[in-house]
Amino acid sequence: MEPGTEGCEECLALGDSWVHLRMCLSCGHVGCCDSSKNRHATGHFHHTEHPVAASHEPGETWAWCYADKIMLDVA
Known about the structure:
By secondary structure, this protein is α+β, with helices and mostly antiparallel strands. The protein has helices spanning 9-14, 40-48, and strands at 21-24, 30-32, 52-55, 62-65, 70-73. It has a single domain, classed as Zinc/RING finger domain, C3HC4 (zinc finger) (Herpes Virus-1, 2-Layer Sandwich), CATH 3.30.40. 20% of the residues lie in helices and 25% in strands.
């Protein structure tokens, strides 16, 4: 899966910042994490019901399943 953008899609459009990035493994949407003020990755899940987002940070190989509320290894 290729990311849709190099940063959080919504934050880039708003001119806002983020803490960490997550990429939807269903469609490639890149959103900001729950530590970011906008929480766009979680918002994307609630809007689309795409269940799994992987860390989009260098060297990190984990993902979060919103539906099952579990962490996954995507190495």
